[in-house]
Amino acid sequence: MPATLRVLLGDESFPLRVLTELDDGVLDRPVSWVHSSDLMDPTPWLEPGNLLLTNGAQFSPEPDAAEATDYCRRLRAHGVVGIGFATDIIHDHVPLAVVRAGEAVDLPIVEIADRAPFIRIIRFVADIIAADRAARLSWLLDAQRAVARAAVRDDGLREILQTLSHLLGAWVELYDAVGGRLSLPGLRSAPRGVEAEVGRDVRRLLERRTAASLVVPSAGHALLQTIGQSSRLRGVLAVGGAEPLDPAGKELVATVVALASIALEQQRGVQTALRGVRAGVVEMLLDGHADAARRVADSAVGGLPTEPYLVGVLRGARATPGLLDELDLVSSDPQRLFSAELGADVVVLVAAGAGDALVALAERRGLAAGTARHGAGDDLPLAFRRAEQAAREARAGTVRAYEDLARRGLVGALREHGGEELAQSLLEPLDGLPPAERQRLRESAKVWLDANGAWDPAARALGIHRHTLRARLTQLEGLLRLDLSTFAARAELWAALEFTDDRS
Question: In what order do the strands lie in the sheet with 16-18?
Fold first, then answer.
């Protein structure tokens, strides 16, 4: 329990009375120490959080209002939390000008009556501060034991950070060596408005290339601390909450940073070996050795997602700085998300219901990703090729599902990849015709194609003789240099008409 004016006022052994009418919360400001002085400006000997005791020798019986206001404003600006004004020594009451000045600058004025010794007040507050420090030290020792126990559990790094978040009641973010935020499922993350500010300062901290810490006042006094040695920084730990961390909280963060550094260094060699194993598992899966691949995964890395699952491809992601380290953390449960390097890409197998993790990763890292569904008995290499195709179609920072590509059809695919330009080129010979004749030929061809090349139904639909229709199609063949007796030519003409229908 920290020392506050409320605690001091609550002890009936002191004849104390609050004279200022201020918000009740001012009495809960922590008191860091008690100092006594009758100087008009004692600030050179004071620190923020101090409670000042005075006999009022610096004031006349009825001090000037401006003089009292300057005095109180100077103390409040310096961080003084209150004034204890002794009566029955020099003044028989606290001057009203001082009380009004305290109210004006949000500084509590407390009357100390009956010649109560200042030393008793000082000793009382000192005992509370000492007891609070002892309690915080005891809390710190217990907290350090808790994070030490977390460090030896499976997935020790995540357990350490979750324990830290719980003990401090704070959000915790972990950043890699290039300032990328690592997503750790189950960990309380920074509020959206705070994360952007913290991320900028994380990158600024890493640019120094030396072990350092930083407090971000605009982000709720969040504490940022680098992880690793100056010669090889492994990332940054950011911790923040509703209140700034006290010394015990900062000491606990320093303990966690030390444990995290050790955990990351120990994991580096192991993770490098496991990456090779995971890559081998994916290669076996794609070579058709699914049973053998699953046996290796079960014994070496903890298994694979249960079918059905998503096959994902992160295009060109292997070279993304810090991505593999993040996937090592995110993939700590391989039955939820399994990742492996494959050439320049990264392949992920994502359990049902865990697709949001892949979407968040692609968005945060600016990666183009594609997915395809793989069910029991399905051809995995086919699903992989489909995911690869979807990744090629995806924009940076997005995930494209192969099912969405399939729904658009071949015409949709051609339309997205310059089909309209090719259609314009094919039909360009018609541009030299008068508009009415050009439209007549286009309409005749479209109706004939919709009738599957049957002359009589198409002619009836157009309201012309079938010989007239034949003549039109013969003219069209000559202009476009197409042999419409072949299916390929008919399909090409149909697609060209479809792509340019709105511009005809």
Answer: 16-18, 109-112, 82-86, 50-54, 33-36
**Cβ contacts of residue 481 below 8 Å, gap of 6+?**
none
Both tokens of 474, joined, read: 């013969």
Please name the amino acid found at residue 429.
Answer: P
Q: Which two tokens stand for residue 234?
A: 């492994």
Report the distance separating Cα 393 and Cα 322, nearest Å: 24
Angle at 37 between CA 33 and CA 43, to 5 degrees: 70
3-state secondary structure of 398: strand
Question: For each of the chain's 504 residues, which pLDDT tens digit applies?
Answer: 789 999 999 998 899 999 999 998 999 999 999 999 999 999 999 999 999 999 999 999 889 999 999 999 999 999 999 999 999 999 999 999 999 999 999 999 999 999 999 999 999 999 999 998 899 899 999 999 998 898 877 777 888 899 999 999 999 998 877 677 777 777 888 888 888 889 889 888 888 878 888 888 888 889 999 988 776 777 889 999 888 888 899 999 999 888 887 776 666 666 677 788 888 999 998 888 888 988 998 888 888 888 899 999 999 888 887 777 777 766 667 888 888 889 899 999 988 888 887 888 888 888 999 999 998 888 889 999 999 988 988 889 999 888 887 666 555 555 555 566 777 778 888 888 898 888 889 999 989 998 888 899 999 898 999 899 999 999 988 888 888 888 888 888 888 887 776 444
SS (H, E, C) 320-361: CCCHHHHHHHHCCCCCCEEEEEECCEEEEEEECCCHHHHHHH
Distance (Å, whole) CA 377 – CA 387: 17
d(CA 368, CA 41): 64
Its pTM stands at: 0.52
